[in-house]
Every structure is written in C-alpha cells, then in structure tokens.
Design goal:
Chain lengths: ~350, ~120
C-alpha cells in the first residue's frame, strides 16, 4: 500500500514538473506569434498589432478567444477519425520532445542516455500530423501540400541526422547534458566553431523541417491557399498553429544545446568579462540563445523569397547531404587522431 | 534500474500530457463554438467551385522515389549513431569499418545522382 502511495506521489510530482515546462512554453508560443507579427511589421515599416492592450500585448489572447468561438467544420467527404487525430498528432511530439531538454545542470525532467535519439524520433513524428491532415481532408490542396511537405521533411531529415552524428562524434555521448558540458572551456569550444558546416546544415534543415519560410511550400498561400490545413477551422487549426511555433522553439533550443553551448556563458574563461558576468545564471544564457535563434527565424521569413520546389530538393540532396558527409569524415578522423584543441 | 525506468516513465507521462494539451482546446472549441452545418460549407474547398473530381489523385512517382531513398539513408544514420558514440573506444578499427560502409553508400548516392533520381525540373 505504501509502495502504491509513493508511486502515486511520484506520478503527481512528475505531472507538476511537466506543467512547469509546458505552461511557460505555451506562453512563449503565444507571444512568439505576437513577436513574429511585430518584428516582421517593423521590418516592413509597419507597426504590427497595436490595438489590443498595451502595444497590442493582449493580441495572442484575443486570437485564442476568437479561435475558440469559431465553428469547427468537418468536411463530409473527409476521413473523420484521421481528420480529428491529425492536429493532436502534430502537437504531442512537439511538446513531448521537451522531456529530455536540460535547462541548467541537472535541471531536466528525464536525464536519459539516448537523449539525442529521442529528439530525432520526436521531430520525425511531426511529419505524420501534416501527412494525415492532408490525406484525411480529401481535398486537392491539402493533398498536394501533404505530398510536398512529406518529401521535403524526409529529405532534410537525412542532413539533420548527419549533423546530429557529427555532434555525437565530438561529444562521445547521446546525453544532452554531457554534450553541453563537453563544450565547456570558453566560446571557442562551442561546437558551432569546429563543426561549423554541420551547424549551418542543422539550422537550414531545422527551418525546412518546421516548414517555415523560405521553405514553406507546404503552406504556399499564393498557390495552394494554405496547404494541409485548408479544411481546418477554429481550434483544430489553432492547434496546428501552436504545433508549428512549438516546433520552432524546439529547433532553436536543440541548436542552442548542440552547437551554441546550451546554458554556458559566452564569456567563460575570458579574463575580465568572465568574472563580471559570472553571477548570471545559466538559464538566462540559454534563453538568450533561443531568443536570438527565434529572431533569426523571423528575420529569414521577412528577408528571403520562397524557394521553388526543385530548388529545395536540390539544396537538400545535392548540397547539404554531401557537405555533411564530408565534414563527418573529417570530424571522425579528427576524433581518432585527437586533433587539438577540440577533440583531445 | 528503477531510475532508468522512471526517466522513461516520465517521458510517457509527458507524451500523455502533450495529447491532453492538443485535445482540451479542440473539445472546448466544440463546446463553445457555433454549429451551423450546411452541405456547401462542408464540401471540399476548391476556390469556390464545386469539386469536379476525387481528390485522391495519382501523384508523381518521384515522391515515392524520395521516400525509398530516405529509408536507405535514414538506416545509414541509425547505424552511424552508435558508431559515433563509441568511436573513442573502437578507434582506428571503427573508423576503417565505417569508411567501408559509408563508401558503399556514397557509391550508391553517386549512382542515383548520375541516373537523375535527384532531378526535379
């Protein structure tokens, strides 16, 4: 009996910890949509949302309330069960991936040894949501979008996998905490430097994986209206939206952890600055890196025109994969010969 | 062992909560939202026209080809993961073994490139 009680208490404790991760994450997602409209607005010399609340700060809440009150349309010809499952299938992995993300030393929900593998798996499941939504809608535009999106996502997943392998080689572990700690010793030890090509490959693949501009042919509003979620309305559409932004935050976080030293301070081991900034907790640095990468996401969307589909496939297969493969071979040799100062 | 299992159990709980986070707003939307279905609204969207054929169209075989190539390369990545983690202990032997394995795959990659399997014009 006491054994059961302790297990129930452990379960409640786990749930509390998960809520502590999910709640701030959902607030971040909501305000990322606001930041996107505001940042792109200023980049295009507009002011963005500014009516609801101070500087439009209540806009995301107003959006959520509006979406809640919209009618949920279920097309007669759609596959009803798959149609209902698709949005949930796209948000659940985007959230569940956070289980293995370390925020600071030992501040992590599940400190597993296969952390990178789990992240890879979760980011791969995301494509099912889009594919099922496109298929279940039984309508032409969602179908086209699902095809495009599936082929694009799996193409970039290969390059992404190779980038992961490069990090695993350098760190010698799949545990995310170990990977971050392996980058200790100053900003020049962050993997973005020795693995620079893989860092770029990972970032481009990450943007393509989340179907964001300039790789957003899956949505392509000028050709296939909105892609896989044309037939969705109200809250199911809102869930797709949340999933997309949650995935953006996830990709930015993984990039910060694997290549930009996670919670490590950029001023580590720098004579004066290191001492002066040592009081700042690690989580601040991690959040700053994530925020910067998210800004890059928005910046890219405001700057680059959309790629054509054949260009996307060419970039993925004929550029990113060869570059990643070549750099992987170099890193493997460097690890075996213990090339200083990074791999000794 | 119990610590190991409990870590994976909390991941399972997290996946469950992820599903709940998706489910609750949709159910709330069903409860709060209006419901005025009509046949035109519930038909498939096609720029205002009535849909004039089934949406289950035949699709380009290249999508299928990409999927097959993906399986090959993803399997390769699956082999690379454990190799990458253990390279510090397997040293030169691991390097040579993987060089042969990747070499064969690169040959296949060059072949498919030359054959034009990666062309999307």
């Amino acid at each position: 009996m006491t054994n059961l009680e302790t297990q129930i208490i452990a379960l409640i404790w786990t749930v509390v910890k998960i809520v502590c991760i999910v709640l701030p994450l959902m607030i971040c997602v909501a305000y990322l949509t606001y930041a996107e409209r505001k940042v792109i607005g200023y980049m295009q010399l507009r002011i963005g949302p500014n009516r609801v609340g101070w500087f439009g700060l209540l806009q995301p809440i107003a959006d959520a309330v509006k979406l809640l009150h919209k009618e949920i349309i279920q097309p007669t010809l759609s596959n009803h069960y798959l149609f209902a499952v698709a949005p949930i299938l796209s948000i659940a992995p985007a959230l569940a991936a956070w289980a293995v993300i370390p925020f600071m030393p030992n501040v992590v929900l599940a400190d597993i040894n296969a952390g990178v593998l789990y992240l890879f798996a979760m980011s791969s499941i995301g494509v099912y949501g889009i594919l099922i939504a496109g298929w279940a809608s039984n309508s032409k535009y969602p179908m086209f979008s699902a095809m495009r999106s599936a082929a694009q996502t799996i193409s970039y997943e290969i390059a992404m996998g190779f980038a992961f392998v490069g990090v695993l080689l350098a760190a010698g572990s799949m545990n995310l905490q170990t990977i971050v700690l392996a980058q200790q010793g100053g900003i020049w030890h962050w993997y973005a430097l020795p693995l620079f090509p893989l860092f770029i490959v990972y970032w481009i693949s990450g943007v393509a994986e989340t179907n964001r501009a300039p790789f957003d042919v899956a949505e392509g509003e000028s050709e296939i209206v909105a892609g896989f979620h044309v037939e969705y309305s109200g809250m199911p559409f809102g869930i797709f939206f949340l999933a997309e932004y949650a995935n953006m935050i996830l990709i930015s976080t993984i990039t910060s952890l694997l290549f930009l030293g996670g919670w490590l301070s950029p001023f580590e081991h720098i004579p004066l600055l290191g001492k002066l900034t040592s009081f700042i907790p690690g989580i601040v640095w991690l959040l700053a890196k994530i925020a910067f990468l998210l800004f890059v996401y928005l910046w890219m969307r405001a700057t680059f025109p959309r790629f054509r589909y054949d260009q996307i496939m060419r970039l993925g297969w004929k550029f990113l994969i060869p570059v990643a493969l070549v750099w992987l071979c170099l890193v493997a040799v460097a690890v075996v010969v213990k090339f200083p100062p990074w791999f000794n | 062992m119990t610590g190991y299992l409990s870590a994976y159990f909390s991941i399972l709980v997290f996946i469950g909560i992820g599903i709940v986070v998706g489910l609750v707003p949709i159910l709330a939307g069903h409860l709060i939202g209006k419901k005025k279905p009509n046949p035109i609204k519930d038909s498939a969207y096609e720029c205002g026209f009535p849909a004039f054929e089934n949406a289950r169209l035949p699709f380009d075989v290249r999508f299928y080809l990409v999927a097959i190539l993906f399986i090959l390369f993803d399997l390769e990545t699956a082999f690379l993961f454990p190799w990458a983690v253990t390279l510090r202990t397997t040293k030169i032997a691991g390097l040579v073994a993987m060089a042969i394995f990747v070499g064969v795959l690169v040959l296949g990659f060059i072949y498919e490139w030359r054959k034009g399997a990666l062309e999307w014009e």
